[in-house]
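Methods — Computational structure assignment.
A single polypeptide chain was analysed. Its primary sequence is given first, followed by the predicted tertiary structure written as structure tokens.
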Amino acid sequence: MEIFDDNEQLMRLQRELDELDRYAIEIGVFGSDDSFYAMLAYVHEFGMQIRAKKKYLAIPTKAAGLKRPADFGNELFKPKGKNVLAIAKGNGGIEVMFILKESVNIPERSFIRSTFDEKNDAWMDFLESQIERVCELEIKARDVFERLGGIIAGDIQKKMNDLHTPKNAALTVANKGSSNPLIDTGQLKQHVTWKVVRDDGSFI
């Protein structure tokens, strides 16, 4: 470590060391940015059982695309003894549009907590190396937290790419074309970010 004999440099060093205690990082999917993706992140992180408000949940098949049951008007019907909604085909057959279920269990697929468990030691090593740079007056205290936030968010996003268990249900795989439960459009991953805050709670 460099030894300072200049009073101005010593004062600057003290200010930066004091600043280290005033900053913190918040990591995750922020409801203030997009409440839908915050909800989606919570469901995957902790798991959830979704129950029908009425009798059934209507789970779309690939044939239904993005349509809801109401979009089909009177075309949909429930074949006797089958928990599906279908439309009639010209040859006397049917095409299933929705699977009917009373509830759906979404298993826990932790991508935030599990990344913290796996990467915490590496992040602490990085933090120590950056504090050394602050002591050398090479970077500011805030830079430490911005850089660490970027690394943590990147590691969480990588975890989302690599996480394949528990796998999607077969119907979900057929609909989205992927077995990765956390990646569909990529929007959830893009919403993983960080914010540097001061001890007064203000965002920087």
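Note: The two ends are 29 Å apart (CA to CA).
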